[in-house]
Design goal:
The protein is globular and about 80 Å long. The strands form three sheets. Strands 2-3-7-6 form a four-stranded antiparallel beta sheet, with helices on one face. By secondary structure, it is α+β, with helices and mostly antiparallel strands. It has three domains: 3-119, Orthogonal Bundle (Butyryl-Coa Dehydrogenase, subunit A, domain 1), CATH 1.10.540; 124-234, Beta Barrel (Butyryl-CoA Dehydrogenase, subunit A, domain 2), CATH 2.40.110; 238-385, Butyryl-CoA Dehydrogenase, subunit A, domain 3. It has nine helices and nine strands. Helices cover 55% and strands 15% of the residues. The longest helix has 37 residues, at 236-272. Helix 5 (236-272) packs antiparallel against helix 8 and helix 7 runs antiparallel to helix 8 (353-366). The chain has helices at 3-37, 43-52, 70-104, 107-119, 236-272, 284-312, 318-342, 353-366, 371-385; strands spanning 124-127, 143-147, 150-161, 168-174, 186-192, 197-202, 213-224, 274-275, 278-279. Bound molecules: flavin-adenine dinucleotide.
Length: 388
């Protein structure tokens, strides 16, 4: 990249981050508590997110998106998650679907779908998980049978983010359930809601409120053959996992945002709360907690930046994304708990923000591949890159 390109990117990044900061202050902060408490989908905020272009953040300008780098995108996600993590899920699952089309779709699919995804007129997410499997995706049972120039799909997907309010999903199915290795029988479709594709229920959650998580049922759902991403059967797992690289960096960035918010709350509360005649931040036991928390947040941020840079350079970055996801999300769980402890009894109260952060953080160690799986991925790549 030329020096002038870098300067332009930096300026573009500054402008977009400023707009995001204004949006968060004006349109989000005043409403988070009530929306979260009542688990309400934030319709008006979504309209503002459309205007900001967030639904097209990493979609290329020729298809109507902002064409941001993953590095800039990760900073947006961090800032949004510092205020309300749920919002990042509304555009991130959507962008993983869009990235699958952008990277692996046919030109006709890109032209047909990406402009509508970029404007937010058509939103959605990624439908991989099923009631009987999440980590072991090759065990999915949703099946697509070819009938002439269409497929008929039957199966159930669960935990699908944006399942109720989204209109279109990247849907992982088996096009050949008997073939070995199993991934060669897997394909990814762009499935729009219609007859045979229904939402069977909304799932209730510990945290991550506001965004809808749902179970989707496909019963004799007929889909044209040209909705098969890339037009070729047997590539579905590869396409879904390619999208998850971006997803994992995003989840890691959410972890940084949640940890930073929990740290901010602790730093300010510890200066206000007094015990034994002095603010608790002057007790060494609290200082040690604050120091460890701040160090984890910064280390997590650097790992996210490192993974985003690798992604932007066009390399496969499963190991970097895995490390960032693992460290930053464990940091979110740990830092939110420590912040709650620093708040004493108030930390357990619904009136304090840290209670929400503590409920939101655990999702991060599960979503986009559990942290147990991340360790396996990191170790596998470590060995692959260092053969003897
Ligand atoms: C709020 C929320 C939103 C979600 N959004 C989406 C979405 O939009 N789209 C989507 O497709 N899915 C989504 N998911 C599903 C999520 O991706 C899965 O829950 C996750 O991948 C884990 O799968 P599982 O729940 O089936 O757990 P399992 O795969 O059953 O795993 C259970 C436990 O076993 C461990 N484990 C499994 N295999 C191994 C192994 N080989 N070695 C060591 N440990 C192992 C796991 O780490 C975990 O601790 C969402 C989940 C939640 C909670």
């Amino acid at each position: 990249m030329a020096a002038s390109d870098t300067a332009q990117t930096t300026e573009q990044e500054r402008l977009i981050l400023d707009s995001v900061a204004r949006f968060l202050d004006r349109d989000v902060k005043p409403h988070v508590h009530a929306l979260e408490r009542d688990d309400i989908y934030p319709e008006e905020i979504v309209e503002r997110m459309k205007e900001l272009g967030l639904f097209g953040a990493v979609i290329r300008p020729e298809y109507g998106g902002l064409g941001l780098s993953c590095s800039t995108y990760a900073k947006i996600v961090e800032r949004v998650s510092t205020v309300w993590m749920s919002l990042s899920g509304i555009f991130n699952s959507h962008l993983i679907m869009a990235s699958a089309v952008q990277r692996f779709g046919t030109e006709a699919q890109r032209r047909e779908f990406l402009p509508r995804f970029a404007s937010g007129a058509m939103r959605g997410g990624l439908a991989l998980t099923e009631p009987d499997c999440g980590t072991d995706l090759q065990a999915i049972r949703t099946v697509a049978r070819r009938e002439g120039d269409r497929y008929v799909i039957d199966g159930v997907k669960t935990w699908i983010s944006n399942g109720i309010h989204g209109q279109c999903f990247a849907l992982l199915v088996k096009t050949d359930p008997s073939i070995q290795p199993r991934h060669r029988g897997m394909s990814l479709f762009l499935a729009e809601k219609g007859p045979g594709f229904t939402v069977s229920r909304k799932l209730e959650k510990l945290g991550y409120k506001g965004i809808d998580s749902a179970e989707l049922v496909f019963d004799n759902y007929v889909i044209p053959a040209d909705r098969l991403i890339g037009g070729q059967e047997g590539r579905g797992l590869q396409h879904a996992l390619g999208g998850l690289e971006l997803g994992r960096i995003n989840v890691a960035a959410r972890g940084v945002g949640v940890s930073q918010a929990a740290l901010n709350e602790a730093v300010s509360y510890s200066q206000l709360r007094k015990t034994f005649g002095k603010p608790i931040c002057q007790h060494q036991a609290i200082q040690i907690k604050l120091a460890d928390m701040a160090t984890q947040v910064q280390a997590a941020r650097l790992l996210v930046e490192n993974a985003a840079r690798a992604y932007d350079s066009g390399e496969r970055c499963d190991m970097e994304a895995g490390m960032a996801k693992l460290f930053a999300t464990e940091a979110a769980v740990n830092v939110s708990l420590e912040s709650m402890r620093i708040h004493g009894g108030y930390g357990y109260s619904k009136e304090f923000t840290v209670e929400r952060l503590y409920r939101d953080a655990p999702l991060l160690v599960i979503g986009e591949g559990t942290n147990e799986l991340q360790r396996i991925i990191i170790a596998r790549h470590l060995i692959e890159r260092n053969p003897v």
